[in-house]
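Homework help thread (please don't just give me the answer)

Our assignment gives two proteins as sequence + structure token strings and asks us to describe the second one. The first is just a warm-up. Here they are:
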Amino acid sequence: MAASSSSSSSSSSSINPQWKKYDVFISFRGADIRDGFLSHLYEALHRKQIFTFKDENLDRGEEISPALLKTIENSLLSLVIFSENYGFSPWCLDELAKILECQETTGQIVLPVFYKVDPSDVQDLTGRFGDALAQHKEKFKDCLEKVESWSRSLKGTANISGWDSRIIKPESKLIDEIVNDVRKKINHSFLSVYDNDGLFGIDSRVKEVESLLCLESEDVRRVGIWGMPGIGKTTIADKVFNKISNKFESQCFITNVGEELEKGTPVQLRHEILGKLLGGENLDVGTPCTLRHSTKRRLPNTKALIVLDDVYGYLHLKELVEGWNLCGPGSRIIVTSKDKQVLEIVGCKKYIYKVEKLNDCESLQLFSFHAFKQTQPTNGYMRQLSERVISYTQGVPLALKVLGCSLYGKGVKEWESELKKLDTIPNKEIQGILRRSYDGLEDNEKSIFLDIACFLKGKIKIV
């Protein structure tokens, strides 16, 4: 990443990316770059599923519209493309002033691109940018304060580390570098939010999965994440995906694969996956058993990250993943399932991570996060009641969340009443979680489970 003569980075600590409508806002002078560099950059961002706003379809007047100001506020990151005539546009300069304001007030990420211009001309207001400011001073004689604010905005943005198109060639390489860095910064912003969103104990589990993935290896590796419903398999897979996806050319995260296979066919789902990986909505993947030659040619050139979440029914799944060894070197396929046998059959046998239950400390933090909106109980007696919940839930994250939310805002007597009920009437939502696990068993497995359950309870099973 090329930098201007001096650099500083903006802080994104006060941004909540979940509140932003757009990932990226692009500020540009259309006449300079619309039909070339901008269109290629926009398409590259779109292919990487980065939701980008560019205002080329809006009617431009002398002053920037309130709607566009709101759009800038609703963007996580702004790309400012300084081209030869950027400084001559009052509209562009108003955009820039608003972008710098959002950087200061909300921590918006700002990244400049110096397209066929010298960064020092922007920073020192020389060359074409000096000419532009001189013209504005003449035109806006009665409003020189505005011109001064534009000058400060230009200088301030030029001090941020960015890209110089004169150094990074060819243009396709420049676009790749911009898109990859934008993705990395967006992912980092989301991960910063997730780290403070009640995902206690997640980091150590993510590291375990990462060690199995061994990203330095050039093999095409399948890794399984195994555990009971509600234990956090999807959460772990999601965090891993967001953390490492910028290292891959193509990415695809498919949720509820088991349900999708019940509604459709492996061929339909394979079509969807290949469409996301290879960027073709109408991609013809071939017959149920054989991929088309064109697909086989493209896959080996694609370093892909694929997550297949919550799978069961290994015969259909085997059809679905057949041929993924054709993906390019370094590709990774992550499969999550409550059935270890499914993971073994689809090639994850050597690399399976069993998700462990939360320990007592992690359980207390997670439960408190939902029950008290803090990481510890409010007082000693509430801690005793909380520890009863911890014992009941046995370290299952989803159960801890369900009970924490149900007890939030209630008094001691209501807590005692609810906990007393749990001894005789299990929570319906938690029962639903466990029921899904039971329903996924084969008939003989269900029979064995009931035999063991009745034996442990000291009950007689009635056949």
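The one we have to describe:
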Amino acid sequence: MTAYAIAHLREAAPHPEIAEYIARITATFEPYGGRFLVHGDPHEVKEGAWPGHVVVIGFPSISDARAWWDSEAYQAIAPLRARHIEGDIILVPGVSADYDAAVTARKMLQALPPSR
């Protein structure tokens, strides 16, 4: 099942190490079937606040995403970004093609205590 690495990165001043990180990152995730789905393009905030940029990398599975994150190749370049850009990064599995939110809602309602 598809999985994603999602980053919410704050604004940062341009720096040569950031450019090096961007130039090298694709080679770190391609061996794990990763590809950019979103890479810093402008986004529309509909609720709340989301300063900075969004990056989404898709992987064939959560194990592929974890293997990329833990890889020697990625860990070697991660400090180039981390030294200059604050942010939050998560790995999250996607839902199956037959996922039905209505089923999730029914299970949620069934788990509620009986109303009085």
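TA reply:
I won't write it for you, but here's a hint about the kind of observation we're looking for: The longest strand covers residues 3-9.
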